[in-house]
Amino acid sequence: MRINLIAIGKKMPDWIQTGINHYQKQLPTALNFNLIALDAQKRKANNIEQIKTLEGELLINAAQGTNLIIALDEKGQQHTTKTLARIMVNWQQNGDNVALLIGGVDGLSLQCKQKAHKVWGLSNLTLPHSMVRLLAVEQIYRAYSLLNNHPYHRQ
After folding, report:
1. Rounded CA gap, 83 and 34, in Å?
2. Where are the beta strands (DSSP E) in the chain?
3. Is the separation of the CB atoms in 138 and 19 below 8 Å?
4. Which of 31, 63, 71, 155 minimizes the number of CB atoms within 10 Å of its CB?
5. Please, is 124 exposed, middle or buried when counting C-beta atoms within 10 Å of its C-beta (0-12, 13-18, 19+)?
């Protein structure tokens, strides 16, 4: 199993990067978790749909070699941590290579959502894309800790 969190944007606020580093360090190497940050497109020259399309192509290209693509979008299906843990067990049993896609500041392109096998949401709230990155890493760690009876996750 491999989990790639693929996101648009390389420059994150320090507090976001600190949080990501904190959870990423606690994940076991056997989980094969990678965070892949891609360059955001320049906002001045293109309209928003062109930008989303270009960023979507970058995300899809970076997801090559994975057999399960999940787009993270505010309108996507939401799961509990327990459900995510069960899903991760399935990924592990199936030997899935998973790509979780996070769009840029303007969100994901329609192409990304259509190419994805699933569209998940972390919240009904609109979240900054940098915070989505942090929440996704934290929830992967939380689900892992739940599966391994680690006291981090409390009922």
Report:
1. 22
2. 2-8, 33-38, 68-77, 97-102, 118-120
3. yes
4. 155
5. exposed
| pLDDT tens digit at each of 155 positions of the chain | 999 999 999 999 999 999 999 999 999 998 899 999 999 988 776 688 899 999 999 999 999 999 999 999 999 999 999 999 999 999 999 999 999 999 999 999 999 999 999 999 999 888 888 999 999 999 999 999 999 887 776 66
Bridge-based pairing of strands 33-38 and 118-120 is: unpaired
pTM: 0.93
Do 55 and 61 touch, CB atoms closer than 8 A? no
Six-digit token string for 145: 């800790």
31, 141 Cβ separation under 8 angstroms:
no
- In this structure, CATH architecture of domain 2-147: 3-Layer(aba) Sandwich (3.40)
